[in-house]
From TrEMBL, chain A:
UniProt-recorded name of the protein: Putative ABC transport system ATP-binding protein
UniProt domain ABC transporter: residue ranges: 6-224
A Pfam family annotated for this UniProt entry: ABC_tran
SMART domains for the chain: AAA
TrEMBL record, chain B:
Keyword Membrane: yes
Domain ABC3 transporter permease C-terminal: 199-310, 642-752
UniProt keywords, alphabetically: Cell membrane, Membrane, Transmembrane, Transmembrane helix
Compartments reported by the entry: Cell membrane
Organism: Actinokineospora iranica
One GO term (biological process): lipoprotein localization to outer membrane
Broad class of the protein's primary localization: membrane
Name of the protein in its database record: FtsX-like permease family protein
Sequence similarity: Belongs to the ABC-4 integral membrane protein family. LolC/E subfamily.
Annotated Gene Ontology cellular component terms: plasma membrane protein complex
Bilayer topology: Multi-pass membrane protein
Transmembrane portions of the chain: 23-43, 189-209, 245-265, 285-307, 328-348, 354-378, 638-657, 694-715, 727-749
Entry keyword Metal-binding: no
UniProtKB/TrEMBL annotation, chain C:
Transmembrane segments: none
Upper classification of the organism: Bacteria, Bacillati, Actinomycetota, Actinomycetes, Pseudonocardiales
Pfam family, one: PadR
Protein name, UniProt field: Transcriptional regulator PadR-like family protein
Residue span, Transcription regulator PadR N-terminal domain: 7-77
InterPro entries: Tscrpt_reg_PadR_N, WH-like_DNA-bd_sf, WH_DNA-bd_sf
Length: 226, 761, 174
């Protein structure tokens, strides 16, 4: 397939004696939303971290747009995370010291965009995620759902090609979860970003175009029945 | 460049204005750094303070080198005691209108006039001191200004000598002698001083370093979040540097302010006979610059050093994994290097200055070993601990995850402890070398010794006899005995049997007998019966004048020890019949004071004042000390005060970090409280978290201190003497500090475990 | 759900009498609804007619209850197809799925494949519902959500079963 954006092949990674990933492979095509499903502890997050280049697999290759991540320098990988990737985790990715708009502007600021410009872009994105009203509050002062939508805004602000979402609704109730997913998916579709969506919730996975199942550190190749 | 500034700006933004928690963090680290900076600035002002004092002292000294065309000023000085205080009285007599004057005086005072220092003016003005006023009834014609008085509390008085001044011992052709290059300090004392400085300043630096690492875990998470959104490791380093720099710079400002504030208050403080003018407290410029540079640099370096574990972990956001294990090698290497330096001491001869410096360096390394080894030890110890009650378990588990913070804080306290233990042992051992009289001599307010020149000896005795408050008077004469020229001499006191009977309680005294105190064995010192010795007099000069030859008698009697405590003879005591005829020696008059008369001593002194500089008196309770002994005592006092102060600083840093710890762990603590863990158990777990590192700290510090002392005393082949009760007391103080800090944190723990603390991002 | 496929699956483990079939079926699947004899024989005769089973011998004494049945090659193919064809996602289909999983385990096929195929089908249905929900009005959303929650329940059951396959395998084998 020509429009493969990101692929991981035969990834292995262990923490101590137990393998977290034991030969996992998956590909992400341009604009595609891939759900990564599987029981807790099966290695979903580790797979996502490997694909995003924040954990180096012990063996196997991760290739993004034709370049192997392990061959890149830390600086290049950082630049990748800053410009091409976006992250939404279950919680904790917002910097509590910064206001929400500053949090959203952070990746731009790190790339050297001026504060004014960065924050106005950030506000725009917060508007699209319907959280512009709370732009000047701090992460500790808003609800979980609002916080996650801010995190989505931050993931999208640099116009990334891939968004890595690890249980983005894990700490939310159904309604808030739905809202976050709806906004995440619709904005990603608009911008053409792909999403790697780690979740164990089928309803969340239903927002994907395709799913990959991880079990005991292995991805299961599912034959689609005609 | 712009990118760099941009990163720094983000760091600054993270450090300030980030809501309550980041404000609290900022304040804590600023206060911590501020205190350390103030202490360092103060320490770097010690030199200038002493210089300024010397400057004034030298400016007041008479220059006896004859100068053509100058009518000299006669100069005599005496120290007049009033209670515990000493008044320096200087008598002046000008030969002519051009006679030199000491600085600060407009015209040479007449016999009925005096210039006084401000402190003396205040003392004289106090109605409680009428006896002092009676002693110095002269009219005050001027008060000396600060610029000429050595220190704020100095009691100094200039008055006219009158015609008698021509017999004054000194003739001044000018005032102010060039600032002499101070004699190189005794290397032993220098070592002590260096050691003390090191022991006191190392904890300050540790405190400084840990202040800039406040809320390390929180900071790591924050930086992880930055890593996640794509800052590379260089950027994170710069951001972290900027973040700590803000705290360090604010701390510098605060420290400067604290220093200035403390300086202004110096005026009213007299600590252990030391007082200074605020104007003198000016840091040595290069030391101040060093502090100004070192603080931010140190802050940034410690932050960078701390980052070495987190730098590659954008996942700190989601995972709290066990930190990387600490390594032992370099920690042991530091200590080993210290030991090597101490054993090898630069290959230099003992008791040179270089020797002192190389030993001080070794000692520094060993002391630094305490805070360096402690985190390793804590980590490895707690990783082996299991079981126990839930508070213990909570504490152990917490320490297993992050023992660094507690270990670092306790490291400061442990260093003070190690330093203090080492110092005490070295001091105690050197105390032998300087043979300072024990502090617990029987103080005697009832006897007094009066020294008078031979020409006024009789007059002095008469005056004292008639003085109010005198019960009895006896007179002895002091000489020295020598075996041959150039040899050291022994003191010889000549007293008649009346005196021997009344003062030394030897009722069967017969003229012609010789006595020795219990601590002296004349035979061992060479005083063998029939041996010929020389009786000499050091009349002020350094070359003794031989007065007579004396054949040592066949037997010596022993003086009862109890009486020696009152009137120490310091050598041999002979009745006149035992000796050949001698010209008048240096008379010493012993006065027995009447305990029924209040301030009897002052009355006697007042009476003696008419003899002015030609007689002086001293109560027999203060041992007379040599210059080295006094320096030693000063250093010892300074060190002890410093230890207390540093221990307090350690306490403050413990408290700051314990509070920080609670603040940082509010959420887990609140969750535990919410799930029914009693606050008591949480408090005990906090106590354990401080107590375990403190126990280990003591376990490192005491051997380190004693080991250090052993190495040092080994150098001078002295026998190590450890003040075990002192060690116990200091150990207990460190433990109490931990306990106290835990108690102080209780209210904060309560507020942290209120359930609304559960709400955070 | 299809009793015919279930009987075929059971026959795959070896020829059985009609009575035997009923007993095994009841043991595994008929917890609350045991099969009636009539149902067994009518189903078997339909399978015979379609050539999916054959009579593999009659024991002396006659009577239908003495007949043994065996699966034919066509029968095996039929069972295989049935197993890997996901049930159309609808509510309350655990019993059918359960039957399939047990039969897959008994016949040594991959029960995981059965579950995976089902999950794919379920998710596909859920995706369609989710898409409809995104574009629909509130009423649509509520209706879709109802279906989604039920399907999700199935899927959760699927996951759970997958996680317990090895335990189930042991139990079935015993
Ligand atoms: N940093 C880590 N240290 C130790 N074990 C880890 C770490 N990260 C993951 N693991 C282990 O790897 C396995 C897979 O974890 P993870 O990828 O988080 O699973 P999932 O996201 O599917 O729940 C688990 O057993 C987990 O305990
Ligand atoms: Mg996970």
């Amino acid at each position: 397939m020509t429009d493969v954006l990101l692929s991981g092949t035969d990834l292995r990674k262990s923490f101590g004696a137990t393998p977290a990933l034991d030969g996992a492979s998956m590909t992400v095509r341009r604009g595609e939303i891939v759900a990564v499903m599987g029981p807790s502890g099966s290695g979903k997050s580790t797979l996502l971290h490997c694909l995003a280049g924040i954990v180096a697999p012990e063996s196997g290759a991760v290739v993004f747009q034709g370049r192997e991540l392990s061959a890149m320098s830390d600086r290049e990988r950082s630049a990748l995370r800053r410009g091409e990737f976006g992250f939404v985790f279950q919680f904790g990715q917002l910097v509590p010291e910064l206001s929400l708009v500053e949090n959203v502007a952070l990746p731009l600021r790190l790339s050297g965009v001026r504060r004014k410009t960065a924050e106005s872009t950030a506000r725009e994105w917060m508007g699209r995620l319907e959280v512009d009203g709370i732009a000047d509050k701090r992460p500790g002062e808003v609800s979980g759902g609002q916080g996650q939508r801010v995190a989505v805004a931050r993931a999208l602000v640099t116009g990334p090609k891939v968004i890595f979402a690890d249980e983005p609704t894990g700490a939310l109730d159904s309604l808030n979860g739905e809202q976050v997913m709806r906004l995440l998916v619709s904005t990603a579709k608009e911008t053409g970003a792909s999403i790697v969506l780690v979740t164990h919730e089928p309803r969340v996975a239903a927002y994907s175009d395709r799913e990959v199942v991880v079990r005991d550190g292995k991805t299961r190749q599912v034959e689609l029945v005609p | 460049m712009r990118a760099w500034l941009n990163d720094l700006a983000i760091g600054v933004r993270l450090a300030v204005g980030g809501g309550r928690t980041s404000l609290a963090r900022f304040v804590l680290s600023t206060v911590g750094v501020g205190i350390a900076v103030a202490v360092l600035l103060l320490a770097s002002s010690v030199g200038p303070v002493l210089d300024a004092r010397d400057q004034r002292t030298y400016a007041n000294l008479p220059d006896a080198t004859p100068a053509a065309g100058v009518a000299p000023t006669h100069y005599a000085r005496e120290t007049s005691e009033f209670g515990e205080k000493r008044v320096n009285v200087i008598y002046l007599l000008g030969e002519g209108p051009t006679s030199p004057k000491p600085p600060g005086i407009a015209t040479l005072p007449g016999e009925d006039e005096m210039y006084v220092s401000p402190a003396l003016a205040a003392l004289l003005g106090d109605p409680a001191n009428t006896l002092l006023r009676e002693r110095f009834p002269q009219r005050i014609v001027g008060t000396l200004s600060d610029t000429v008085v050595e220190k704020p509390t100095a009691l100094l008085l200039y008055t006219g000598a009158g015609p008698q001044g021509r017999e004054a011992p000194l003739t001044a052709y000018a005032f102010g002698i060039p600032h002499l290059e101070p004699e190189p300090m005794d290397p032993g004392l220098l070592l002590l001083l260096l050691l003390g400085t090191v022991a006191l300043l190392v904890p300050v630096f540790i405190f400084l370093a840990s202040s800039t690492r406040i809320a390390g875990a929180e900071r790591d998470r924050r930086l992880s979040a930055l890593r996640l959104v794509g800052s590379d490791s260089g950027q994170v380093r710069r951001i972290a540097a900027a973040e700590t720099l803000v705290g360090a710079l604010a701390g510098l400002l605060l420290g400067g302010a604290l220093f200035l504030l403390g300086r202004e208050m110096a005026d009213d403080v007299e600590l252990m006979n030391v007082s200074v003018y605020p104007a003198d407290i000016v840091p040595t410029w290069w030391l101040a610059v060093l502090v100004l540079l070192a603080v931010p640099v140190l802050a940034v370096l410690t932050a960078q050093f701390a980052l070495r574990r987190t730098i590659i972990e954008p996942l700190g956001v989601v995972r709290h994994s066990k930190p990387v294990r600490r390594r032992l090698v370099w920690r042991v290497a530091v200590v080993a290097l210290g030991v090597v330096l101490l054993v090898w001491h630069g290959g230099v001869d003992a008791n040179s200055q270089l020797w002192s410096y190389s030993i001080a360096t070794g000692a520094t390394l060993i002391l630094l070993g305490v805070p360096i080894l402690l985190p390793y030890l804590v980590e490895h110890t707690v990783s082996r601990l299991r079981g126990g009650p839930s508070s213990w378990q909570l504490a152990i588990r917490r320490l297993q995850l992050d023992s660094g913070t507690s270990a670092r804080v306790v490291g400061g306290v442990a260093t003070v402890l190690a330093g203090a233990v080492a110092l005490q042992a070295v001091l105690l051992t050197q105390a032998g070398a300087f043979s300072v009289p024990d502090d617990h001599r029987v103080p005697s307010d009832v006897t007094m010794t009066v020294f008078a020149g031979p020409e006024v000896a009789e007059e002095a005795e008469r005056i004292v006899k008639n003085a109010e408050g005198t019960l009895a008077v006896s007179s002895v004469q002091s000489f020295s005995v020598q075996f041959s020229a150039g040899e050291s001499s022994q003191s010889l006191i000549v007293a008649d049997c009346d005196t021997v009977r009344s003062v030394y309680a030897v009722d069967d005294c017969v003229d012609g007998q010789v006595f020795s105190p219990h601590y002296m064995t004349p035979e061992a010192d060479g005083f063998l019966p029939g041996r010929t010795v020389r009786v000499v007099d050091y009349d002020g000069g350094s070359e003794p004048k031989v007065l007579a030859e004396w054949t040592y008698p066949a037997s010596t009697r022993r003086l009862p020890p109890a009486t020696i405590d009152r009137f120490d003879v310091g050598g041999l005591l002979a009745t006149p019949g035992a000796l050949p005829d001698l010209p008048g020696g240096y008379p010493t008059i012993r006065v027995q004071l009447d305990p029924a008369v209040p301030q009897a001593a002052e009355h006697v002194r007042n009476a003696l004042q008419s003899l002015r500089w030609r007689a002086w008196s001293s109560l027999d309770n203060a041992p007379v000390l040599s210059q080295s002994q006094r320096e030693y005592l000063t250093i010892r006092r300074g060190l002890l005060v410093g230890s207390v102060f540093t221990l307090l600083l350690g306490g403050i840093s413990l408290l700051v970090l314990a509070l920080e710890h609670i603040r940082e762990r509010r959420r887990p603590l609140a969750i535990l409280a919410a799930s029914g863990v009693p606050t008591g158990a949480l408090a005990r777990s906090l106590l354990w978290q401080i107590a375990i590192p403190i126990a280990l700290g003591v376990a490192v510090a005491v051997p380190a201190g004693i080991g250090l002392a052993t190495l040092i005393t080994n150098l001078s082949a002295d026998l190590l003497r450890v003040d075990w009760p002192g060690v116990a007391i200091m150990t207990a103080a460190a433990a109490a500090l931990g306990l106290l800090v835990s108690l102080l944190t209780l209210p904060f723990l309560r507020s942290a475990t209120r359930l609304d603390a559960l709400r955070t991002e | 759900m299809s009793i015919g496929h279930a009987l075929l699956g059971l026959l795959e483990t070896g020829p059985r009498h009609g009575y035997d079939l009923k007993r095994v079926y009841d043991e595994h699947f008929g917890h609350d609804r045991p099969l009636a004899y009539g149902q067994v024989y009518s189903t078997l005769s339909r399978l015979l007619r379609n050539g999916l089973v054959e009579e593999s011998g009659v024991e002396p004494g006659g009577g239908p209850e003495r007949k043994r049945y065996a699966i034919t090659d066509a029968g095996v193919t039929d069972v295989t197809e049935w197993l890997v064809t996901p049930e159309s996602p609808q509510i309350y289909l655990q019993s059918a799925l359960y039957t399939k999983v047990v039969l897959a385990l008994m016949s040594g096929r991959s029960a995981e494949d059965v579950l995976d195929a089902q999950r794919v089908a379920h998710l596909k249905a859920m995706r369609e519902l989710t898409a409809r929900k995104r574009d629909g009005d509130l009423a649509d959303q509520l209706i879709c959500d109802h279906a989604l929650f039920h399907l999700e329940a199935d899927l959760r059951w699927l996951e759970l079963t997958t996680a317990r396959l090895s335990d189930l395998g042991k139990q079935v084998a015993s």
